């Protein structure tokens, strides 16, 4: 049986990008159906930093009043030299209070954000979230799209006006559209370890977000509330190129990695850890006919700086605005503009910044390391330079530049 709706938008992927896009469309009176192959909201321990620009967008959707009290407000972030233990630079977003409505980064796990949206808004006839539905076949026609999704009741077909792929780096929608995913994969993988050990108790000068440069093994260290709100610190390291996943995830491997970086008496209590591959890739286009891409389906990057989820939510808001206008009668060339704007933001800002972030943290040449430290310290100490740096790191510059593209 075909489920049809001439105005309905179909979205594949119920992560933060798919759910924010669905909510933004639904607020315009556009019916949406979201398909997620997992049986329910996934408590994946992925992105957790929501930048000031993204908080403003979520505020327009009436989401921040729910999430801000539940997250950790991080007003500062630090860069440190792991070798010497010195603080290189600190940036304070409170200095941007005249620019940002929310002059802080909210540390709030992405699965909580998607769960909040699903709990408050989804599962009505015009905002239909279908967990346990894996999308397979995708067909595009002149005036609609059709998909086949396997759910608890078998395979059913659905029809909509447009199909949005927010289904991750291995996107079914992107593959169905035949859109190349250009870029590269890092040789090393990343390991994320979460521990209940309170690093601020041991190091009161640490911020909630810390970046440690080390020529042998850099580290990102930041705090989240965790499942029960008890507070967890996440440490992200690169694995060795010759290190197996089993070795990295072993109790011995995890303990040795934490103790090498942050020596302490007694063993660390580890809440969870996982190893994952990391790519820097961007789709050749974010639109092919009635098939559209957003978030990781359109671009993936390393997590240093917390730009992936934020850039994806920026995609979602931009796309929802333009697609809503098209469904109300505007020229569908607006969707090509969406592709141009958001692809530019991904390539010129998110890709460039995350690659530069990683290069700075892993720099092995000592004179080059010191030169980069001196430059970053100079920027942080200069009020105008620090403001410009925070504009870029918070993706404000990428928004302004991309949105000016016609």
Automatic annotation (TrEMBL):
<dbReference type="InterPro" id="IPR036188">
    <property type="entry name" value="FAD/NAD-bd_sf"/>
</dbReference>
<protein>
    <submittedName>
        <fullName>3-(3-hydroxy-phenyl)propionate hydroxylase</fullName>
    </submittedName>
</protein>
<dbReference type="Pfam" id="PF01494">
    <property type="entry name" value="FAD_binding_3"/>
</dbReference>
<dbReference type="InterPro" id="IPR002938">
    <property type="entry name" value="FAD-bd"/>
</dbReference>
<keyword id="KW-0520">NAD</keyword>
<dbReference type="GO" id="GO:0016491">
    <property type="term" value="F:oxidoreductase activity"/>
</dbReference>
<feature type="domain" description="FAD-binding">
    <location>
        <begin position="8"/>
        <end position="351"/>
    </location>
</feature>
<dbReference type="GO" id="GO:0071949">
    <property type="term" value="F:FAD binding"/>
</dbReference>
<keyword id="KW-0560">Oxidoreductase</keyword>
<dbReference type="InterPro" id="IPR050631">
    <property type="entry name" value="PheA/TfdB_FAD_monoxygenase"/>
</dbReference>
